[in-house]
């Protein structure tokens, strides 16, 4: 027997906290009866529904995707564009969702899972998961601009937290720079806005790592399941239970 909100989170409905809200608001039924109390426990033979839709007690799965350019970071798109979930659809039958998002034109590492609790923690700023990006920008970036990025710059009226930076390359003929930037915040379009704040428009952006995870051996448009050791490490770092 497990708590209802945990079962809902493991089935990919929502995080535990959001599942508790759904329960309190009367959206959840157990064996045909609406429940609103917290802490109710259910077993494998109990029928759980959310707004009348049966819940699948799905096994928790975790995938690492090397997102290509021109793909939407969502489970579905109302404009009919290809999504990251579509890439997995041929072999992954469990309903999964992206952890956070990458812009339509941004490439690189993206996690997908049906573990609502872990996904919620991975995107919460309290856990400060480092994300490393490589950006090709217009113009030759200067040392003082790199220093500004490390200290923090104003983005949407708020100063960003300190970042790690490294200048990888410059092309004086094309007047472009290749910059590595590591942050642990997750604001909307943050990397692009940070670089624009120091005077450089982003031409290309690629996320090469997420915490201890990287894209080694995963070509663009391909994916792999996380190894057991990687899942255990994520659970350890986020305090997520099985």
TrEMBL record:
User: Per the database record, which ranges form the RNA-binding S4 domain?
Assistant: 2-59
Q: Return one Gene Ontology term, BP aspect.
A: enzyme-directed rRNA pseudouridine synthesis
User: What domain of life does the native source organism fall in?
Assistant: Bacteria
Please name the SMART domains in this protein's record: S4
Q: Does Ribosomal protein show up as a keyword for this record?
A: no
Recorded GO MF terms: RNA binding; rRNA pseudouridine synthase activity
Question: Which named protein is this?
Answer: Pseudouridine synthase
Native species = Paucilactobacillus nenjiangensis
